[in-house]
Design goal:
6-stranded mixed beta sheet; two-stranded antiparallel sheet; about 35% helix; alpha+beta; single chain
Length: about 550
């Protein structure tokens, strides 16, 4: 179970195990262990500036109550604790009046006395059977849940689930602990979006950005447009109805078969005989076969329906389980891991003292400093058409699809907004904020090093749309003034990876095809490559501005 920490009283063949989910603000440590059946785990929950600490005792008395009766007096009890387990003890406190045929043990009385002396509160319903022996014996209450101190007020519910394959019912205790976890975010049903209503709401606002002057007006315009898009989205796109998610291979036949299995298990537990046991085994085997066949059928249908674009995703769909991030540089808390990743993968901007470029060091094939022009409707439309749709949204929850419909409804707003940003040299702070997703790099020996991971930065689609327009303009300007060579592959229109591959393979093939003569041995082809580590992070912003100025590139 990769998302849980496991605690056991002994490293080999323990009889009781405690699992604690790995989550921010929750920590646990073993504080008591005896033999292979008795375990105490102290759990600390630090949530919302409030700390809750209690010790969970997981006890199993094998076969009879004598072992637990001998262990309990040796425990140094904390003030707040929760005690759960199979004590194998029959006592009138939790069993109720014992019939003459019921098993009893003298050791159950010292257990009850010790629990009473230490002010334990019983959460079980008295005389509610939890153990149903398969040999036809009398059902009994031997699985207990008790608490003391402030932990008693934290216990919200105690539930007994009889739909299990064991002769012991499942005992579930719910505690009320403060949580920092954000509630599940409501999702929109984009398939039911009314884009005509969205466009009507945008057009009814009659927003005009043609007369905005200065940085403050530009930032205000960004805020107003973002708010307008959110209002139109709320008006035109409904929310999804919360429902229980089911596996895509699940069907109604499996539901009916599962119900039959539970009924058979209940009959075998309540009326243990050979007929009911065989019926339970038969129905469980049939249900397992149905599940296996349903998964296989669904998988085959996926592969048959996959195209050349989706086959890779289909093949690797099974390897999508979330894996927790291990400790990074010794940091185990959520905030500590974030700091380790930020320091390793987001180095500070290069602000070291530098030497200015000598005047006239660089030349320009053409002076285009004054070739600045406003962003046009056609330019914005082309940038939107070539966006990569289906990507995740940034912190503002505005997708490329929403921007496309917004631009269709009001084609003049985005060009005016982007023109103002370029004219006044303004990039709104909300466009500089990103949600980062940690993705482990494949093939690493250890993932405790922050550099063994990479971060997927999810920025505002607004900002990325403007960046695509600026990047295209910079590419054209750099080629015009001679800052880049026409043979450069990166950031050049009509140059692709295929062109780079052909330019590499062609001279190699030509050299290999040359025949050896008596007077001349053809040269052996060789390829020299190099990579500058952290090159982007080492670029000094002021030096880059000087390079652009000496190249006489456009200025905002």
């Amino acid at each position: 179970m990769p998302n849980f920490d496991m605690f056991t009283p002994t490293p080999t063949r323990p009889r009781c195990v405690t699992y604690v989910r790995r989550m921010p603000g929750l920590s646990a440590t073993t504080t008591f262990a005896a033999q292979d059946s008795f375990l105490g785990t102290t759990i600390t929950s630090l949530q919302q500036q409030h700390t809750t600490t209690f010790t969970l005792y997981n006890l199993y008395s094998p076969g009879r109550p004598d072992p637990v009766a001998a262990i309990l007096p040796t425990i140094d009890l904390p003030t707040d604790c929760l005690l759960m387990g199979d004590l194998n003890a029959h006592h009138t406190w939790w069993q109720g009046p014992l019939p003459p045929s019921a098993r009893s043990s003298p050791a159950s009385h010292p257990i009850a006395n010790w629990l009473t002396e230490n002010n334990f509160h019983l959460h079980n319903e008295i005389a509610k059977p939890i153990h149903h022996p398969q040999n036809g014996g009398q059902p009994s209450t031997i699985d207990l849940c008790l608490s003391r101190g402030r932990t008693t007020q934290l216990v919200v519910t105690l539930a007994i689930d009889q739909d299990t394959t064991s002769d012991h019912s499942s005992l579930t205790t719910t505690l009320s602990l403060p949580s920092n976890a954000a509630p599940p975010k409501a999702q929109r049903c984009w398939r039911k979006a009314d884009w005509e209503s969205f466009a009507s709401h945008i057009q009814a606002a009659r927003m005009d950005l043609s007369n905005h002057q200065g940085t403050e007006d530009t930032l205000s315009a960004v805020t107003n447009i973002t708010q307008l898009i959110h209002e139109a989205t709320n008006h035109a796109v409904p929310m999804k109805d919360p429902r229980r998610l089911e596996a895509p291979w699940w069907n109604q036949n499996l539901t009916l078969a599962k119900r039959a299995v539970k009924r058979a298990e209940r009959r075998a537990r309540q009326e243990p005989n050979d007929t009911n046991r065989k019926d339970r085994q038969h129905k469980h085997h049939k249900w397992s076969t149905m599940v296996r066949n349903a998964k296989t059928t669904y998988r085959i249908q996926q592969l048959q329906a996959a195209s050349s674009k989706t086959i890779w995703k289909t093949i690797h769909h099974h390897n999508t389980h979330h894996k927790p991030i291990p400790p990074l540089n010794g940091q185990t808390t959520f905030r500590g891991k974030c700091d380790a990743l930020r320091n390793a993968l987001f180095p500070p901007v290069n602000a070291t003292p530098r030497t200015q470029l000598p005047p006239g060091l660089l030349t320009s094939a053409k002076d285009i400093r004054q070739h600045t022009k406003p962003v046009t409707i056609q330019e914005t439309h082309l940038a939107i058409v070539h966006l990569k749709y289906g990507t995740s949204v940034g912190p503002d929850d505005i997708s490329y699809t929403t921007l496309r419909h917004f631009n269709t409804a009001a084609p003049h707003l985005l060009p005016h907004l982007f023109t103002a940003c370029l004219t006044w040299g303004t990039h709104p702070p909300e466009w500089k904020t990103a949600n980062c997703v940690v993705i482990p790099k494949p093939g690493k020996k250890t993932y405790s090093d922050p550099k063994s991971n990479r971060l997927l930065s999810l920025q505002s689609c607004f900002g990325k749309l403007l960046e695509s327009i600026v990047a295209k303009r910079l590419s054209q300007a750099a080629l015009t003034c001679g800052a880049t060579h026409p043979s450069q592959m990166g950031a050049q229109a009509e140059n692709s990876a295929i062109d780079a591959l052909l330019r590499t393979i062609t001279p190699i093939a030509r050299a290999i095809s040359q025949k050896k003569t008596a007077n001349k041995t053809p040269l052996q082809p060789a390829v020299l490559t190099h990579d500058i580590e952290g090159a982007f992070n080492q670029v000094h912003p002021a030096t880059l501005c000087e390079v652009m100025q000496q190249r006489r590139m456009p200025q905002s």
